[in-house]
Amino acid sequence: MKTKNMILTMVVFVSVLVLLVAAGPSPAGEYKALQGTDSVDTIFDFREGDPAGALVHLSLAHKTFTDKAIQNVSEKPRFVVVFMGGAVKLLSSDRSAFTQEQRKTLAKMDNVISKMVKDGIKLEVCLYAVDFFGVDPESISPEIDVVPNGWISSIGYQTNGYALVPIY
Predict the structure, then answer these.
(1) Which of 31, 91, 114, 161 is the most exposed place for a label (fewest CB within 10 A)?
(2) Pfam families per the record (predicted)?
(3) Is residue 1 exposed (0-12), middle (13-18) or buried (19+ Cβ within 10 Å)?
(4) What is the pLDDT of residues 74-118, one digit of tens each?
């Protein structure tokens, strides 16, 4: 009988422990800045022109979107990445100006971009920068929306309450 009581006590203890852990602070609670927030709208002004740096920053933007702290905010987060400046060269399917190692990095970046689109992150590229850097607009993936001027797009998002995260 004593063994049964001990087992029952252990089951109750473990159950209470599991409930306490499950009822603990939400991942958003790890960030005081998110307390009281009911939506997360963010625009990434993306100008990083180095393939390795761009891959790291783009992966981090995607990881931020999928982070439980962001996803647990009551409304679905809205993220936009606007590619401007030298970053537009990284989006072209013409990779002849890049080394073999950079091409491998850009292939990984293409994979991250596809995942971002699949997860609902909006991607835009500035046509002004595309023209300025001599990138063929047809060489850019159709997953990325072309806007005439990335600054105007950025101004619009910020005017509508999107937080700006610069990536230079």
Answers:
(1) 161
(2) DsrE
(3) exposed
(4) 678 999 999 999 999 999 999 999 999 999 999 999 999 999 999
